[in-house]
Design brief:
mainly beta, four-stranded antiparallel beta sheet, single chain, 1 helix, 72 residues
Length: 72
């Protein structure tokens, strides 16, 4: 399970914008997107200028949705 969760973001190499925008983080300066994997959201941002993808958080969807705002 852990290895599958780690490998899931590899899909972003072909198309980094496949994830939906994270509405609960829309007030942030950075645009965050997410991939769903089982009961987890892999929250990430795309830095087109520098050509990289940053995984910001792995969020268990069984938590309260407002807890998603915990990182900066």
């Amino acid at each position: 399970m852990v290895q599958s969760l780690i490998n899931e973001p590899n899909r972003l190499e072909k198309d980094p914008f496949i994830g939906q925008k994270e509405e609960l983080l829309k007030e942030r300066k950075t645009t965050y997107r997410y991939l769903l994997f089982k009961h987890y959201k892999i929250i990430y941002s795309v830095d087109e200028e520098n050509g990289f993808i940053k995984i910001a958080d792995v969020f268990a969807t069984r938590q309260k949705p407002t807890e998603i705002e915990r990182f900066e």
